[in-house]
Amino acid sequence: MFPVSSSSRFYLYDAPTDMRKSFDGLQGIVNNSLNKDVRSGGVYIFINKRRDRIKFLVWDRNGFWLLYKRLEQGRFQKLLSADKEGLTISYDMLVMLLEGVDLTSVKRRKRYR
Description:
alpha+beta, five-stranded mixed β-sheet
C-alpha cells in the first residue's frame, strides 16, 4: 500500500535541505528542527536550495518510505512559514505545489466542510 493519501498530514520543512541526506539525516531534521516524532504519522517534505528536487519521508507501520522527485525543468514554489516548526500544508496544496501551480494567485471558493 502506498503511504501517502489525502487523509495524511503534510509538514513542509522550509529551510533548504541537502538532498544527499537519507532516512537517518532527514529523521534528525524532523526530530531536532521540526520538534516532531516521525513515527507519530505524517508526511515530511524537504526541498533543496535550487528548489528543483523534493523528498518525502514517511513512516509506515514497520519502516520508512523515502520518495524523491527531480524536476527536469522549472522550480518548486517557495512557501513561507510563520513558525519555527515548518509549515503544515493540505493535500490540495501539495498537489498544486508538485504540479507547478502558483499558490499566491489561487483563490478558493467557499465550500461546506
